[in-house]
Amino acid sequence: MGIGDRPAGYRSAGGFLIEDLFATSQREGPVYADRHLVVTRTNNPPGLRFAGEIDITNSDAVAQSVRQAIADSGDPHLDLSRLSFCDISGIRALVEMAMGLDGGRTMLLHGLPKQLQEVMRVTGWSGLPSLVLCTCSGEAE
Description:
alpha/beta; 4 helices
């Protein structure tokens, strides 16, 4: 695959870090990448890993990409342990994705930073039946 080639299912909002793309190429490439965020697939548990920042500039594109990536799987696991920033638009995108799950599926958020856990608790979003804030310490592989 050349530098200009993009794997199937790849979405970009413009720009990416070549180091992140190279590192993720071993996992079938990123699901989404822009100048601030790379979203890649994880194998154990099956899901997605977020590295970087989610904000108003990429939250809609991230939500659309994630919906497509988790459309046919079981309960989606999202590893947020490498997320360095997430504004309210990013939090809302995660909540809306969880609320949009069908068939009794549950979105599991792993490694959610303490500040974001507090926002989820105060807003009542942590109590949604389709959203679980995991307290496990391990990162997804």
